[in-house]
């Protein structure tokens, strides 16, 4: 059972490095503390605290302290008034051990629970339940998951050259902006770079074949993505307008229908080869292939990388005074020289510090902070210090920003950014068993039998290439609040 909890048989069984935990049988059985409050009122109060008065990190932390437990009952948004069909009751799991139950597909199921009990309308995805909404027991999940793994395998030969050429354009634009006006925002060039690079690798299509898609494809994806998940997103600056207008109801698909249809037409026309493969090798229909491709491109890849790479740039900026830049630059140039055509998956695998920095960014800034799963049957859930009874149908909610600070696992200053935490010298390889950004451990394998991100391997490698490219191109860089204010080009 413990080996299964990590989602893959190849993974080290879940037992925090030290001190070794008591075996589940020796842990006390405890009633799950917390509660859901009065009907309607309880969920509304929790929602206001979650979005407005506390914000998600404080919301979970305060309850953890109040109940003296990393496992407790609470409500999470969206809730009343216009989410009548959505049940906000969850059981929060906030330590590494209890969180890992989310990966055991024998005891949990993931049908329609990507963002808790709330699911955006399937109108946003061509009336299909795309891969992310399917449980592993559904045959369609196997077909589409294998299709997504195949896309990554086949595109691995063009992945690095496409990344580098798109990075060249991104940083040329940033250099020009810094030279002209003294600073450059990273957001827009980053989104354009990601859209170009990911469309090439995932759809096999060059956006420049359609002027409108080339200039606005990234904005079309932003709107389509943002509007469907708005009821679950904390912006935190517009209250009380945010509660009234963004978190009280779902926005209809027709607001972004025109743009979405343009993206569909583009994929249909330019992604013929990959669509054909979906049909012949994975038995999907043309329409299933198109809408799943768009979800993988827009939601999984473009959405995930946008958040992650902004966090990566921000961490590079924040860590400047620690001497990180010099160390990264030395490692990159020692291993791969100063020319970007020497960069490859193999070369960055050899850059221990670059990789550790990437993992530490994923630990403290997981791009998808919350993960959910529903109990497939009654089972006993174990935390570090107690056992709890979970009933079939109950929804588990893990909030990674707290889980990834579990002091029993990340023992050394768990809340501090230590860029060399994952190096061999610090036992970093062992810690990868507990790095969960991909809805599974970093040492696990994404397969059709689990719900781990298909790009679990390639995401950190791509981030390592992004960092290596940066420190080949520049001797130093200054980044603050998403703006690049100075670049010192490598001589
Ligand atoms: C930084 C970028 C990315 C992040 C942060 C990310 C994160 C995640 C997470 C957290 C999940 C699990 C969601 C859940 O069920 O709770 C997931 C699932 C998935 N991701 Fe990624 N992802 C990224 C990039 C990609 C890319 C490039 C692909 C391209 C193939 C991809 C394909 C998928 C697929 C197909 C699933 C669904 C897996 C399943 O249903 O079994 N992801 N991703």
Automatic annotation (TrEMBL):
It comes from Olea europaea. Residues 1-26 are annotated as: Disordered. One of its GO terms (biological process) is fatty acid metabolic process. This is Hydroperoxide lyase. It comes from the Eukaryota. Keywords: Heme, Iron, Lyase, Membrane, Metal-binding, Transmembrane, Transmembrane helix. GO terms for molecular function: heme binding; iron ion binding; lyase activity; monooxygenase activity; oxidoreductase activity, acting on paired donors, with incorporation or reduction of molecular oxygen. SUPFAM superfamilies: Cytochrome P450. Pfam families: p450. Residues 14-25 have a biased composition (Pro residues).
């Amino acid at each position: 059972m413990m080996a299964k909890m990590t989602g893959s048989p190849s993974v080290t069984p879940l037992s925090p490095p030290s001190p070794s935990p008591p075996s589940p049988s020796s842990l006390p059985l405890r009633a799950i503390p917390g509660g859901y409050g009065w009907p309607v009122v309880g969920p509304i109060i929790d929602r206001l605290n979650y979005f407005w008065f506390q914000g998600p990190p404080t919301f979970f932390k305060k309850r953890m302290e109040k109940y003296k437990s990393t496992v407790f009952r609470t409500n999470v948004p969206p809730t009343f008034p216009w989410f009548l069909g959505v049940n906000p009751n969850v059981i929060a799991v906030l330590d590494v051990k209890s969180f890992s139950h989310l990966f055991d597909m024998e005891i949990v199921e993931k049908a329609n629970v990507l963002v808790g009990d709330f699911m955006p309308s399937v109108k946003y995805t061509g009336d299909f339940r795309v891969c992310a909404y399917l449980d592993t027991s559904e045959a369609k999940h196997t077909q589409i998951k294998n299709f997504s793994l195949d896309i990554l395998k086949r595109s691995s030969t063009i992945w690095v050259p496409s990344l580098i050429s798109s990075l060249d354009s991104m940083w040329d634009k940033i250099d020009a902006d810094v030279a002209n006006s003294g600073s450059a925002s990273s957001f827009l060039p980053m989104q354009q770079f990601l859209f170009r690079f990911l469309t090439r690798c995932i759809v096999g299509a060059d956006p420049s074949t359609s002027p409108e898609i080339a200039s606005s494809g990234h904005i079309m994806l932003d709107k389509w993505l943002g509007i469907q998940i708005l009821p679950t997103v904390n912006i935190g600056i517009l209250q009380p307008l945010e509660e009234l207008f963004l978190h009280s109801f779902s926005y209809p698909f027709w607001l972004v229908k025109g743009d979405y249809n343009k993206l569909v037409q583009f994929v249909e026309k330019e992604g013929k080869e990959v669509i054909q493969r979906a049909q012949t090798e994975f038995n999907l229909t043309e329409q299933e292939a198109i809408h799943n491709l768009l979800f993988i491109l827009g939601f999984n890849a473009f959405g995930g990388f946008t958040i992650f790479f902004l966090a990566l740039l921000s961490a590079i900026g924040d860590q400047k005074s620690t001497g990180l830049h010099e160390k990264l630059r030395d490692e990159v140039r020692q291993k791969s020289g100063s020319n970007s055509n020497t960069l490859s998956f193999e070369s960055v695998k050899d850059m221990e510090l670059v990789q550790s920095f990437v993992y530490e960014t994923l630990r403290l800034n997981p791009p998808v902070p919350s993960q959910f799963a529903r109990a497939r049957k009654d089972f006993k859930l174990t935390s570090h210090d107690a056992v709890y009874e979970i009933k079939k149908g109950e929804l588990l909610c893990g909030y990674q920003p707290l889980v990834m600070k579990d002091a029993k696992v990340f023992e050394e200053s768990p809340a501090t950014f230590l860029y060399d935490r994952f190096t061999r010298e610090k036992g970093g390889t062992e810690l990868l068993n507990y790095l969960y950004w991909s809805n599974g451990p970093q040492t696990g394998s994404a397969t059709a039998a689990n719900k781990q991100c298909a790009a679990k391997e390639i995401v950190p490698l791509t981030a390592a290439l992004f960092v290596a490219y940066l420190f080949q191109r520049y001797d130093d860089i200054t980044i603050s609040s998403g703006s690049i204010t100075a670049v010192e080009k490598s001589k």
